[in-house]
């Protein structure tokens, strides 16, 4: 125990010294060097002890979310999430003086070449596995760690990637690319201050690296902006919906004569939505044009009026003769959404649509996608449903493009309106079959009325057992951001894992939940299965946790490089599920994240 504490203190100490180094000056440099030496000694002496202690005392005990997470720390084998990527080997095996035979070095080099090839052909899962095999053979090679970090960035496993990049830096403290990868991870998990620290390290090694210098300056600007916005929030700004209505009453947002796009009809001085307008709007969008700002506001407020009436968990019955299509992340891929809607059909009284969050960010037609979805919500509130995703959130929109795009296309106030209305979107939807399952169907968990029902949510389940549907229904969501913990954060952020129990998140936010967690939760709540999105799946969908947890993802060839299919799930009145896959559609030549502010798009695309 004492050993563990000491090692931890030294580790923390070194982090402190690393921070210290950023504030120039000889004395701090000296302290930093001393800190480094102390920490290395500490690691060498204490780590074997620590590892031993962990094996003996902790054994196979599962990781618990309450325990402090250390992204760069080793994790006991039973606690690591089995995602697409195997976990990092334990720290105990990774001392810097590991003896590697010539034969192992050669084998590692061979595996690395294969991994590089897989990476180039965008098979990131295969690449990550091959780098892991190479690391097994030669854990002293910092390039293997750095390359695997990059691969894991591509897989959006930023928590894992951060730990790999840190390892590469430990092996080679002058490894510029490793600092760059780590800075990327820090940006992705919304820790720009830490990214700046890494940029500074790079500039200390390469003072003439202008790309990094300009990225650092942009990031520092971003930090100031975040602080400025926080200050305003504290002062308490008016609800953006009320503010927009005020501006409209004051005549501050009228349609000018030069506007040549589709026009919303009016009755008694109030705009209303029609199916014809939606068709004209789609056509207008395909011509690369934007709606008048006023119409954008009206559509967002039209959807808002329905969202605010919905509970945080929405109940939707599927009557006889009706089906519901569940759609996963679409991430601003408007041309794929048009293709998808041609497969699902529009929402009607016989056919509902449920979009399961992450409609915006990444793709550069996020405005087109969200306005289309909101227009349908306004027109058909009982046939069109939307759940909030982790990207319907301010901090994500700032980083992943939607904020920049919304301001570019419709201005500052429109973005504020979107940001607020996102907080009114429900967090989950419970789809109830109204007919009993056929006696021939396999036995499954049923509702108290003996019907199949599905819990549809963007991320997944919780860091604790026993959460009831009622608790979810009562979550106070309006005006709130998901944050870093709590039920709302977990609904929007968590991922399933193959190993039982719970594990740390590969993303660095939320947790991972195992098949037993899903089983217990579904049994407790009489839920036949969870349908969630949030993660790319090569086939567009994947049935996991013994059929109780299904992932559906609807952005084919995600960010123009994942090569995955998209899918949607159709559910009928008996709760039968049918899966449909689709391929990516061509789109005009515009890159994902084109609107990320301050020229940070290239960094975020890494
Ligand atoms: Mn997501």
TrEMBL record:
Family to which the UniProt record says this protein belongs: Belongs to the PPP phosphatase family. PP-5 (PP-T) subfamily.
Cellular localisation: Nucleus
Function: Protein phosphatase that specifically binds to and dephosphorylates the molecular chaperone Hsp90. Dephosphorylation positively regulates the Hsp90 chaperone machinery.
E.C. number(s) listed in UniProt: 3.1.3.16
Residue ranges of every copy of the Serine/threonine specific protein phosphatases domain listed in the record: 387-392
Principal subcellular localization: nucleus
Annotated Gene Ontology cellular component terms: nucleus
Active site residues according to the UniProt entry: 391
Keywords assigned by UniProt, alphabetized: Hydrolase, Manganese, Metal-binding, Nucleus, Repeat, TPR repeat
Stored SUPFAM superfamilies: Metallo-dependent phosphatases, TPR-like
Organism encoding this protein: Cyclocybe aegerita
Name the record gives this protein: Serine/threonine-protein phosphatase
Cofactor(s) this protein cannot do without: Mn(2+); Mg(2+)
TPR repeat windows: 142-175, 176-209
Known catalytic reactions: O-phospho-L-threonyl-[protein] + H2O = L-threonyl-[protein] + phosphate; O-phospho-L-seryl-[protein] + H2O = L-seryl-[protein] + phosphate
One Gene Ontology MF term: protein serine/threonine phosphatase activity
